[in-house]
Amino acid sequence: MFAAQGVAVAAVSTTVPAMASRLGLSSLAMTALTIALTLAAGVGSFTGLAAVRRSGPVAVMRAAVLTAVATLLSVAWAPGPAAASAAYVLFGLALGVIDVSVNTRAATVERHYGRSILSSFYAAWSAAGVAAALLTAGVSRLGWPVQYVLTAHAVLVALLALTVRPHALAPVPSSSSDRPAPDDEIPGRRVWARLVPFGVVLLVAYVVDSAVSAWSTAYLHQTLAASLATAPLAYAAYQAGTVTGRAGADLMVRRVGPVAVVRAAALLTAVALAGLAVAPSWPYAVVAACCAGLGVAALIPLCVAAAGRLRPGAPETVLARLNVFNYVGVLVGAGASGGLGATGHFRIAYAIPAALAVALVATARFFRPTEPGPSHAWTTRRPGSPHVLPVAVDRGRRP
After folding, report:
1. CB count in 10 Å sphere of residue 143
2. Is residue 394 part of a domain?
3. In a 10 Å sphere around its CB, with 0-12 CB exposed, 13-18 middle and 19+ buried, how is residue 250 labelled?
4. Is there a contact between 291 and 241 (Cβ–Cβ < 8 Å)?
5. 292-316: per-residue pLDDT in tens?
6. Cα–chain-centroid distance for residue 3?
7. Coil vs helix vs strand at 15
8. Which residues form the domain of 317?
9. Burial code of 153-175, b = ≥16 C-beta within 10 A, e = fewer?
10. How many Å apart are CA 287 and CA 399, to the nearest integer?
């Protein structure tokens, strides 16, 4: 399901210039459409929360992904700007529902494994994004119109969704520490306060992610004079970087801890964005986009995992609220980048997030595990010993 979502998002992101040309829309109009899609995704996040509580994450995620397929086809074959705009908004709603349902299920699976594995799920998302971007570039080079490009993506998403089968999870041994404290029964100020540090990191990460994924294709085409067939390569390189980073992020978390991983990731992201801002030609921008993906790769899954542990009995509640930071980041990143790009200042759009990424170093301390818990223990090995030992995980409460 993460892969299906990755293909769907990449399909929309890599066809922005082609859809603008087909519909006769200006860059500012496409920016407004992207903002509307993002706002719709925020609404879909809370809609997904209600649906998950009623029907469970597996059924909801499948229905939402199939809805995304239908809306992709609607975008592709929309007869005019009004119909296309409505289809984009419906796609955003489906995307928000997917976010809550897949992350709820993933957080629950990680809890059952008792170790860091969420980055591996996001690696599947990124790998699918790479494949989708390369598909866009390949069929564009063949001269296919954008309608057929999006239809090919929709078919791929549908095939991924239809192959998914649910699997029962083994019961986790319960303990008194697993039960939420009385003041955590209903999320309020305390949960929000504990969520803010992770939300800030997620917000900046999505500013970076949306600035690169939503507008790198347009940046290469408009500012660096890349062709429509070449321009999607920056998106593909960015997602290739995230695949590489996420494939190794879980192992790095187990070896050096999440604090060191967050600090290193933030600094690498800042350097890569600075390189993207000053790139003299599109090949340099492609390399910088890859490095940006490598840096930002671990930040999003680590935030989701940490937030999900705040209320392990009901992760969907916290994750729906965490998605507020997600979509604010997407809104700011996509809106600001598109607005600056429309006025010919794409380079500034990548320089500003570089400074924000440096500031994330100060938030890394909030990812430090501090409290043991039998069903939430991460696993590691004592040097020189083959035995697996539990490592504390922070759930925000004293023993």
Report:
1. 8
2. no
3. buried
4. yes
5. 999 988 888 888 888 777 776 667 7
6. 11
7. coil
8. 2-165+194-368
9. bbebbbebbeeeeeeeeeeeeee
10. 47
Tell me the residue ranges of DSSP E strands in the chain: 378-381, 388-391
Quote the Cα angle for 220-280-7, to 5°: 30
The radius of gyration of the chain from alpha carbons, rounded to an integer in Å, stands at 20
Instruction: Tell me the whole-structure pTM to 2 decimals.
Output: 0.70
Query: Could you give the C-alpha distances from 11 to 107, 207, 268, 316, 323, in angstroms and in order?
Result: 26, 19, 27, 27, 21
Type of residue at 152: A
Report d(CA 359, CA 258) in Å as an integer. 17
**Which residues, including other chains, have CB under 8 Å from residue 345's CB and lie 6 or more apart?**
none
Q: What does the DSSP 8-state code read for residue 40?
A: H
Q: How far apart are CA 153 and CA 356, in angstroms?
A: 33
The per-residue pLDDT for range 105-151, each reduced to its tens digit, is 888 888 888 787 888 888 888 889 888 988 888 888 888 999 999 99
Question: Which tokens go with 99?
Answer: 């976010």
Residue 378 is assigned to a structural domain of this protein: no
CA dist 345 and 309 (Å) reads 40
Q: pLDDT, tens digit, for every residue of 152-197?
A: 999 999 999 888 777 777 665 544 444 444 444 444 557 677 788 8
Q: Is residue 390 part of a domain?
A: no
Residue given tokens 């060191």 in the structure block: 260
Rounded Cα distance, 62 and 165, in Å: 10
Taking CA atoms, 54 is separated from 40, 111, 173, 372, 396, in Å, by: 21, 21, 25, 32, 28
Residue 389 lies in a domain: no
Residue by residue, DSSP assigns 199-240 as HHHHHHHHHHHHHHHHHHHHHHHHTS---TTTTTHHHHHHHH
Give one DSSP letter per residue of 150-190, joined into a string.
HHHHHHHHHHHHHT----PPPPPPP-GGGSPPGGGSS--HH
> CATH number, domain at 299?
1.20.1250.20
d(CA 14, CA 6): 12
Query: What are the C-alpha distances in Å from 254 to residues 17, 119, 239, 364?
Result: 41, 12, 23, 16
Residue 380 three-state SS: strand
d(CA 218, CA 235): 10
Whole-angstrom Cα distance, residue 71 to residue 87? 6
Q: How many structural domains compose the chain?
A: 1
Q: Which amino acid is at 332?
A: V
Ramachandran angles phi, psi of 58, nearest 5°:
-65, -50
CA gap 110, 120 in Å, rounded: 10
